[in-house]
């Protein structure tokens, strides 16, 4: 009957006591970003866990921003642990040793937290969380990030990130109690990773979940097919609107008009000219590369075949001749490049001078 | 579970887990422009066609400190630069890293990761990887008998611009035999008939996903909208900021529909010129050797003629004859420089030529497409 009262529990990022920092420490919750490879590694570890264990844990490594509000998880490794109903054991030495090994190869990545492959949070999680957040070997004074990835078969893989705040009922139970505060996370990736992810995404469509790596031409073909598909959908929609079979939307129409007007309007002659120039450049470099390859092949064969002519003196004139040919192809190559680049022959003059000397020897 | 592979079962292909691909990409892009090296772990599976190497995990090597001075032979002809790039490239066979690798493998075995080393990986830019370091690394792995190791080369520049560029190589058996002997002068090459094309053998590579990963990937895009058709956006701003149309990490990568020719061409020309310079250096070395050999031989012949004369005189004067073969102790013939480097240069140039061919195929297609769009009436 009474009006519902909203009780608020203000959850702030727990600050380490006596934090000494020049910038005012903020209490905003962390935001976590993670790389796909960390996630894949966790999934791989989950599939390799020993048969009797429900969940496995491991350490997260990554980088932090200056004021500590952003954590970027870049790497992780597994830590063996055993868990029974009453107690949990984590192999500390293993964790320390692996951490030092990893720091040797990538010194920029520091300890930022830990992960577990089941979604539940219990006292053992709290215990391990406090261990990771402690002074000395943990992430003190920054809070430790806890990532749970639930890998129950048949259900979605669900990843959540938390940080913890100490919450105590009594002093003796303070070690294994903590309040997990969920923080937002996202997956970030760069350009090179995108192409890798694309390959992996294609592999997922197939029966045996594997895919032969494709050449550039095949990838190009696939990209063009996708664009064509998208264009077809859009043009279907537009013709439906024109036939008044579909609902028009002014925003969509405007967007399409803006996009289509991005196509440049150039006159045919300049397009032809630029096109021819570019094609010529590409074909020229391809021809030169193949010529150089053939030339080097020839010179290698001549050098080793020279001895069959009987004496060593036969070799120097042949070598000198090859050098002549080599020089001419050099100058041809550089000339082609200089012609396009204009005044960019900074090293060209010096190289010419160096080439002259061997002939004079 | 894999039966022991005999030395006769040839390596047929390499299968690599998605996890390893992502790790290699991440390590290479963060270490750019120095080459990034690391170790591959996995196992080999034999069937009746041949052996397949499965790579299931990997870890990076720390850049090694220089722990051995360059050998005398190399110092005669090359300067060993001890900059970061060379150190990193030589990391897989450095002594400190062998210990690092065995420690890592020991720890990883405790968490059920495959403990067998099946090779190493290196990152490169624009195909610039065929050099002394690469060969030595792979030889270091392949010299154990009955081994199954492979070198993976990841090309950072080309992967960012277009499709994933990851290749697997091994040293060919004929090259291994020659390298073991260590002599690459002209007679050895004539006998073995080794050409630069024979140095490396490329193996086909496939990517493989685990079940768990596949289910995760299927669920990664947003859950399908509950309504049958999306509501139309009310304004353009809505369109661009609609959370339903978020960027999906697995969306088709349309980056390589980009038409950028010049940077690639310039870099390729630069690298080709570098290779030509290296080739020139080799030629000069070989010529220098031949000239000094000729000089020594004329000197020896002159000395021999003098000795013969002296001996004739002494013979006439009934004095003991001097040794005619003493010239071996007096004159030292120069050593022939190894032809290995020129062969490597040839192989490198072939790598560039292949890349350019692939690139020109793709670029011509794109350019004809663009031209067709801009001049619609002109579809030839």
Write the layout of secondary structure elements.
The complex is a heterodimer of chains A (361) and B (380).
Chain A: E1 31-34, H1 36-47, E2 57-64, E3 70-79, E4 81-83, E5 88-90, H2 92-105, E6 110-116, H3 123-132, E7 145-150, E8 158-166, E9 178-183, E10 185-187, H4 191-205, E11 210-212, H5 216-242, H6 250-260, H7 268-305, H8 315-341, H9 348-360
Parallel strand pairs in A: 1-3, 1-10, 6-7
Antiparallel strand pairs in A: 2-3, 2-6, 4-5, 7-8, 8-9
Helix pairs in contact in A: 7-8, 8-9
Chain B: E1 11-17, H1 18-31, E2 37-46, E3 51-60, H2 72-77, H3 84-89, H4 95-110, E4 116-124, H5 132-142, E5 150-155, H6 156-161, E6 166-171, H7 173-181, H8 186-192, E7 200-203, E8 205-208, H9 211-219, H10 236-241, H11 262-316, H12 327-330, H13 340-374
Parallel strand pairs in B: 1-3, 1-8, 4-5
Antiparallel strand pairs in B: 2-3, 2-4, 5-6, 6-7
Helix pairs in contact in B: 11-13
How would you sum up this structure, described in words?
The complex is a heterodimer of chains A (361) and B (380). In chain A, the strands form two sheets. Chain A has an eight-stranded mixed beta sheet with strand order 9-8-7-6-2-3-1-10. Among the domains of chain A are: 31-191, Cytidine Deaminase, domain 2, CATH 3.40.140.10; 264-298. Chain A has nine helices and eleven strands. Mean pLDDT of chain A is 71; it is low at 17-24 and 310-361. In chain A, helix 7 runs antiparallel to helix 8 (315-341) and helix 8 runs antiparallel to helix 9. Chain A is α/β, with parallel strands linked by helices and 361 residues long. The radius of gyration of chain A is 33 Å and the shape is extended. In chain B, strands 7-6-5-4-2-3-1-8 form an eight-stranded mixed beta sheet. In chain B, 48% of the residues lie in helices and 15% in strands. In chain B, strand 4, helix 5 and strand 5 (150-155) form a beta-alpha-beta unit. In chain B, helix 11 (262-316) packs antiparallel against helix 13 (340-374). Chain B is of the alpha/beta class. The radius of gyration of chain B is 29 Å and the shape is elongated. Chains A and B meet through helix 1, strand 3, helix 2, helix 4 and strand 11 of A and helix 1, strand 3, helix 4, helix 6 and helix 8 of B.
């Amino acid at each position: 009957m009474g009006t519902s009262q909203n009780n608020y529990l203000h959850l702030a990022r727990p600050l380490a006591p006596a934090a000494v920092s020049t910038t005012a420490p903020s209490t905003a919750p962390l935001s976590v970003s993670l790389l796909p490879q960390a996630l894949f590694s966790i999934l791989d570890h989950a599939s390799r866990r020993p048969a009797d264990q429900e969940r496995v844990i491991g350490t997260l490594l990554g980088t932090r921003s200056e004021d500590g509000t952003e954590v970027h998880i870049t790497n992780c490794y597994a830590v063996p642990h055993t868990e029974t109903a009453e107690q949990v054991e984590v192999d500390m030495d293993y964790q320390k040793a692996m951490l030092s090994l990893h720091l040797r190869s990538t010194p920029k990545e520091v300890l930022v937290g830990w992960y577990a492959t089941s979604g539940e949070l219990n006292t053992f999680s709290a215990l391990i969380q406090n261990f990771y957040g402690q002074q000395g070997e943990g992430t003190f004074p920054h809070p430790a990030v806890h990532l749970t990835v639930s890998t129950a078969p048949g259900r979605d893989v669900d990843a959540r990130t938390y940080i913890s705040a100490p919450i105590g009922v009594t002093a003796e139970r303070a070690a294994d109690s903590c309040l997990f505060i969920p923080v937002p996370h996202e997956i970030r990736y760069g350009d090179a990773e995108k192409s890798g992810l694309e390959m992996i995404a294609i592999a997922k469509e197939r029966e045996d979940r594997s895919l032969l790596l494709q050449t550039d031409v095949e990838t190009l073909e696939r990209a063009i097919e996708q664009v064509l598909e998208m264009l077809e959908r859009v043009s279907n929609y537009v013709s439906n609107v024109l036939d008044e079979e579909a609902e028009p939307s002014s925003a969509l129409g405007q967007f399409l008009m803006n996009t289509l007007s991005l196509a440049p309007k150039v006159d045919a002659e300049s397009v032809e000219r630029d096109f021819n120039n570019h094609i010529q450049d590409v074909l020229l470099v391809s021809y030169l590369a193949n010529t150089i390859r053939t030339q080097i092949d020839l010179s290698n064969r001549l050098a080793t075949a020279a001895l069959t002519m009987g004496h060593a003196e036969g070799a120097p004139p042949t070598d000198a001749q090859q050098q002549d040919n080599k020089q001419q192809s050099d100058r041809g190559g550089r000339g082609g490049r200089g012609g396009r680049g204009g005044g960019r022959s900074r090293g060209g003059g010096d190289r010419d001078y160096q080439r002259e000397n061997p002939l004079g020897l | 579970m894999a039966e022991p592979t005999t030395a006769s079962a040839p390596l047929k292909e390499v299968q690599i887990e998605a996890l390893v691909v992502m790790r290699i990409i991440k390590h290479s892009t963060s270490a750019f422009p120095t080459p990034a090296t690391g170790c591959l772990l996995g196992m080999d599976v034999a069937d009746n066609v041949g052996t397949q190497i499965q790579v299931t995990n990997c870890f990076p090597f720390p850049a090694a400190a220089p722990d051995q001075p360059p050998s005398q032979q190399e110092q005669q002809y090359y300067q060993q630069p001890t900059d970061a790039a060379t150190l990193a490239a030589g990391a897989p066979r450095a002594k400190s890293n062998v210990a690092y690798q065995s420690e890592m493998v020991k720890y990883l075995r405790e968490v059920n990761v495959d403990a067998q080393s099946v090779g190493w990986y290196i990152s490169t830019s624009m195909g610039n990887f065929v050099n002394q370091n690469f060969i030595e690394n792979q030889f270091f792995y392949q010299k154990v008998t009955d081994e199954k190791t492979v070198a993976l080369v990841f090309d950072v520049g080309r992967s960012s611009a277009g499709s994933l560029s990851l290749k697997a190589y091994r040293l060919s058996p004929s090259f291994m035999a020659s390298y073991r002997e260590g002599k690459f002068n002209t007679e050895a090459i004539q006998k073995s008939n080794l050409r630069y094309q024979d140095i490396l053998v490329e193996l086909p590579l496939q990517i493989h996903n685990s079940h768990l990963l596949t289910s995760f990937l299927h669920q990664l895009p947003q859950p399908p909208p509950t309504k049958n058709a999306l509501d139309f956006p009310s304004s353009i701003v809505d369109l661009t900021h609609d959370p339903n149309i978020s960027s999906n990490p697995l969306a088709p990568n349309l980056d390589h529909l980009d038409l950028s020719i010049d940077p690639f061409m310039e870099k390729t020309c630069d690298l080709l010129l570098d290779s030509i310079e290296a080739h020139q250096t080799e030629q000069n070395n070989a010529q220098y050797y031949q000239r000094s050999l000729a000089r020594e031989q004329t000197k020896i012949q002159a000395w021999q003629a003098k000795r013969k004369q002296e001996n004739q005189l002494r013979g006439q004067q009934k004095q003991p004859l001097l040794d005619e073969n003493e010239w071996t102790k007096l004159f030292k013939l120069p050593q022939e420089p190894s032809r290995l480097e020129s062969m490597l240069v040839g192989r490198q140039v072939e790598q560039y030529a292949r890349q350019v061919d692939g690139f020109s195929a793709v670029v011509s297609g794109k350019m004809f497409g663009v031209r067709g769009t801009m001049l619609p009436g002109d579809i030839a």
